[in-house]
Write a structure and sequence with these properties.
With about 1000 residues, the protein is α/β, with parallel strands linked by helices. Helix content is about 40%, strand content about 10%. Its main location: nucleus.
Amino acid sequence: MSRFLQAVQSNISEKEKSELSVSELQKCGLTGIVLKPYQLDGVRWLSQCLKTLDGCILGDEMGLGKTCQTISLLVYARGHLRMKGPFLVLCPLTVIEHWEKELKSLCPSLRVVHYKGDKTKRAELQRNMEDQPFHILLTHYQICQNDASVLKRWNWDILVVDEAQRLKNENSKLHRILTEFSLGFRLLLTGTPIQNNLQEVYSLLTFIQPDIFPPDATTEFVNAYAAVQTQSSQAKELHRVLQPFLLRRVKAEVETELPKKVELVVYHGMSAVQKKYYKAILMKDLDVFRSDQGINNRLLNVLMQLRKCVNHPYLFNGVEPEPFEMGEHLVEASGKLSLLDSMLAHLLEEGHRVLLFSQMTRMLDVVQDYLEYRGYSYERLDGSVRGEERHLSVNKFNTEEVFIFLLSTKAGGVGLNLTVADTVIFLDSDFNPQNDLQAAARAHRIGQKRPVKVIRLLGRDTVEEMIFSRAVSKLRLTNTVIEEGQFSLLEKSKAASQLELSEILKFGVHKLLSSDESSVQRVDVLQVLGQSRDGKWLVDEEHVRPAEEEADEDEERQNHMYFFEGKDYSKIPSTEDEKRFELMLEEQSTPAEDAGKEGRSLRHKAGVLFSGHLASTSRVKRPLTESELEERRRKREETAAKKAKQQEEKKREREEQKYKKKMAWWASCGYTSLCLPSADSEGEDVDEEEEGDVSSVNSTDSDDTAIRYVLGDVTHPQAEREDVIIIQCVDDSGRWGRGGLFTALELRSDEAKKQYELAGDMEDLELGSVLLFSIDDKQSRLSGRDYLALIVAQRRDKTNQLSGIHLNALDEGLKKIYRAAKQKKASVHLPRIGHATKGFNWYGTERLIRKHLASRGVPTFIYYYKRTSSDSTTTAPSPTAAIPSTSRSAFAPPAPVSPSSSCSPGPPEEQAESPEGSRSSQQGGASGLPDFMRGVRVLFYHVGATERKKLARYLIAYDGDEEDLVSSQVTHIVAEVQSPAHIQELQDMCQQCPQAILVKKNWLKSCFANQRKVSTSKYIHHFK
């Protein structure tokens, strides 16, 4: 008997049987749920642990309701045990909104602090937490680590850590920080208590019960149970050690009503180009295979390159043929994508919805291109997607008829509920099988109404087979340690864990590389996937049986997603593989006579340098005559022209079909587009005025063709009797912005937001499109109508990243607006489009405005918004404005402008403070930026352009202003002094504006770092 079992028996008493009922929990404050019997048992077990232990692990399989059981325990602790709290709940960022929703629904009587946001918001929350009592603080790991010094101030009665596998390494930062907290009871939630080895189990045990499992006894624990898979006595003892601290239930045992899950492994061949590069990757670094060391960074790099090759050769730079256009080559180049293409067409036709997982975000990029090419609807979530956008993507997939959800296995495999999908496809496998299990549980969980089919794509005779085999062995360890039975698999598991990485790389080369030709074959998808009816899989009862029946089967057969139809994988390469590999080494060692001839090599990419195997075998050829060369050149040109014509025709056909489908959809919805037609669709010839554009742009403007610069509010244009067109640039997302010109337009008219979002819903926002409509619904002039023209000039991608303004889209939009203005005899009024946007070309924009509008006789006005001290409107930064995320814009009712100052032939830089749409005042609110720099007007002197731009951006964001000229408005001169001449110039400037304080740039940096206006005393320039 080990000392660990002795310690458990001597320190842990038997738990008293709990009679806790649902009605008691409801009296304590639990609402909005009726616990299932096994969930109530879980709460009873947790309540017993709370009374007798320092901590425990709820290790139920993913999808069995660990969250609701935990909240029930907190309600019980507060309502029945009268624990005052507070309780600390930590979870991943991806599931924090799910926790917020569940806490609000299940325990509305408990006061919950959602501890998140930027540094300023968290500081405000800290002050409120000190003044006002609370019961639960909910936050995510990263903020807990960043604000550990703050959170240590409280004595936490209960700590809950969701997805606690983050603590499997006792040397991790989160593990170290939490051990420094003042904690009462510690509850760990994880669907994967063990992922790789016994050391991870011990790390969790030492966190919840450090007195029994001291941190310095890890090696002793691992050695004590090293033979757990061969000696049943050790296995039984380990179960006795774990039993008081760990509760683990699986779906097959407790959730009998949950629809069945079927797992399939489907093999695919390799295209010729994949085989070519697979061999080249193996041969690129021969020394690693001749070394005595099996596992090292170089071999791991080779393994990663092979995995990329099996996925898709276009993951390497230089492989995709030019020109880079969508086409069937995208599918044909990869055996995996060819198989996926056949499957998705069948799944869409049968009414299934799909979760598509990959380890590589680059592979997701390729699949995304393919989905765009095929016209499939999709959402995407990976590590680059921000928290808010993750929530929006999940909601859209769950509420709309989106066909496919692209997910990275790690980012999309934790905490998401995607039960609207009934098909899960893994493009590649993880070495850690628990990551794949977590991912599959996104669909197969409570709430699922249809059978779920999990499909894994494996490249036949490639490293993917060996990776899959090793994952099986790891999962067997989990079953042995956590779940009883199945203790006779040591040798195979041990073989997998000790397998030399070099042998993994050699696996399958004999069959795979026996031929250079493609081994991709057509697949009978219906036969492979099975039948379905009305969007539901028809489960073959003969192959899906309860766990207790599976236990009676041969020990080799596993009842989990890694059981693959009885196939026995070898753990070492075959003799033929070894011979074939040695032959390849010998061939590679012989220097080629003409290496590099007539071959196309890959461009260099980090870690990838392919060898001469990509070159064609050198052989003597008869030189072609001049006429033969000319004939070959002619045939190649004809073939290329023919292919290009065919591709163009197919592209045109697809666009026509897409257009007809969209028109039918619009007709069924009663939607009429407000987009202006293009010049081509109107069939108008370019008039004579346009022919003179080049000369007019380079000539001096007359009064009739000059751009007029105006101080005022563009949403209330300064016009007389003529019609007016107001221009604003938007992106193609269909989500109306907040702040700046967006808020001003929304105050002016309800139509602006309404028509733009409607166009977004109807997919009527393409780059270069212009929506034109009247905005006289709230306010109007006595004569003349006001129109708003929204030019779609920016793109917003799936990760919510906003592009800059596309000048070609702006150019197309201005052409359309010219024709509308000419027809309506209207003047055009614009803010200073894109001002303060990083890298924006205002010079080019102004030339376009002049070219298409002013020089052709359209009265054109560009507005500079005059900020006043009485501005009071507060807005939040716009997510769709063409400005940096820290910039803002404030709007007040338009002040009258005198005729003498309202218009000028040039930009009134000395009068105007900021253009419309460039920034907004924030005086409060949860989402607003602080305004501690209000009233500060800075003139920069001799500060580098890049640093000046950065400082000015922050200054404006925090409600300050940048001045371009010396004037009485300047409050501070921020200067860098590098020569006596600079001192003289600064002294002259100080005489011109004696009210200004002369400071160093570090003053601004200190203000921004401290989030307040600091004293200038330490930063003033002193000149002798």
